[in-house]
Amino acid sequence: MTTSNGSGGAARRFRSQLWFDNPDNPGMTALYLERYLNYGLTRAELTSGKPIIGIAQTGSDLSPCNRHHLELAGRVREGIRTAGGIAMEFPVHPIQETGKRPTAALDRNLAYLGLVEVLFGYPLDGVVLMTGCDKTTPACLMAAATVNTPAIVLSGGPMLDGYHDGKLAGSGTVLWQARQDVAAGRIDYNEFIDIAASSAPSIGHCNTMGTASTMNALAEALGMSLPGCAAIPAPYRERARIAYETGVRAVEIVREDLKPSDILTRAAFENAIVACSAIGGSTNAPIHLNAIARHVGVPLVIEDWEKIGYDVPLLVNMQPAGEYLGEEYYRAGGLPAVMHELLKAGRLHGDAITINGKTYAENVAGAKTADPKVIWPYDKPMKPHAGFKVLRGNLFDSAIMKTSVISEEFRQRYLANPKDPNAFEGRAVVFDGPEDYHHRIEDPALGIDEHSILFMRGAGPIGYPGSAEVVNMQPPAALIKKGVTSLACIGDGRQSGTSGSPSILNASPEAAAGGGLALLKTGDRVRIDLNKGTADILISQSELADRAAALKKDGGYHYPPSQTPWQEIQRAMVDQLAEGMVLEPAVKYQRVAEKFVPRDNH
Predict the structure, then answer these.
(1) Do residues 399 and 391 make contact, with C-beta atoms less than 8 angstroms apart?
(2) Which of 125, 328, 426, 578 could form a disulfide with 302 if both were Cys (CB 3.0 to 4.6 A apart)?
(3) pLDDT band at residue 287, thresholds of 50, 70 and 90?
(4) Residue 159 has pLDDT above 60, yes or no
(5) What's the 3-state SS for 367-424?
(6) pTM for this prediction
(7) Alpha-carbon dihedral angle through residues 48, 146, 286, 228, given to the nearest 10 degrees
(8) In the prediction, which pLDDT does 499 show?
(9) In this structure, are residues 401 and 502 in contact, taking their beta carbons and an 8 Å threshold?
(10) Mean pLDDT within 424-434
């Protein structure tokens, strides 16, 4: 059955017409229609056959990194209207990385669930996903993948470059350095706060290549946003322009019936893994990308990140792996320029389709870098291998290490033994949660020296709950004053994507799920071998078995009780970080808008 598309042609019927233009069910049509007229929409609009495009609004006063979306949505509306659609804006559960306690990661799945219900249960034909702060991007993409109605991502963009004392002050990165300066006695509390504030000079998300910049870049690398969208700084006029263009394209993809499943293919995910390495992306990326893949039904495992991305060189000279911030990266060409280099080198699936209807090869063919000191050529990169190393052993089944941020000082101290290259052994110092770490890190009885290995457990999806960014622990002040600014850190939690610490993170299974970290004791010798990809407690199998039996007898690894209903609900069904920290029962719900029509409500 066809209907007028508003421009004299014929178009297929859209799902919103089941609500607003369904003569076969006049009683329900009247019920749905009348209430949507009460704020000024006309019956003619709602029964015209024009596609109704949702605007998934992630901006609010609680989400400062995304707050400018409240205004930017106006340009999206104009684009939707120009292209012949009707816009309906609605809120998404807020997720602010720096505001939500105990961790914003707890709310990623909650926002996902809410958005699935909106996209499936309301009269929407397509949606503009307004993303920005870390978890907003995967939450939106996970929901779009589950429902599988046409969707397009509009990133909010990074803040302007921050400065302190005439030097670049990157969001997050300058904070970690300032923490060390406080511990060393070089600055006081007020100076510390002033430095932190200097790194947030405007609207927008982190201006470093933290999780926010990474995930919005990967949304573009997957093909779910218009070319060049991710890197545009939030205050720039180009951000409003691409908001308008995204609104226009949102209407077009509904008419074309271009759905997430058409774009989110195995090839697209492989492109995103390669891109993540080249930009020096966050260690949170595997968690979120694996989650999106699971919800769209594409096989993707943690080992793929090393197999596909480890040997990809670092091309982007941006903090924390490099020197510059978001504005210079954008001016140098942003992700399209990076993808151009990767395409030339044969590292991309150039035939992967993207949201503008073109292939990746078509989109980036002419996108050369404008500044080779910011985006380096593939054949002369900043580092030859920039991907994640996946480790396994009796400590965990998997954990990842970001190789692009291994400093020369760290390499010399831990990895440069000519008799044992790229491997190290050390004495474990174990903390049960960040409170324990902050309480005891300065205790001289722990005997922490420059070769110690700090462990953080109880910080995973179940134990925290939600998995917290607490693994990048700084050394005690006494070591910092001697110039030892980083120790090897290992844990079942995460770390901020803005951190330059080469920690071993995302250990799965976590201690709370019976992982090997629960058996570790302070004083144990631990061996890490990057060449072999192993991480082990150096104790006998019989001792390991005895510890496991004792832990089981004691009721398993103890962690704090749930403090809210959602914490208890998520803990009962959440998967581990390596598998994307998804809600396990949710994975079976795929392409639901194709399979089902929601039942009437009266």
Answers:
(1) yes
(2) 578
(3) very high
(4) yes
(5) CCCCCCCCECCCCCCCECCCCEEEEEECCEEEEEEEHHHCCHHHHHHHHCCCCCCCEE
(6) 0.96
(7) -10
(8) 87
(9) yes
(10) 97
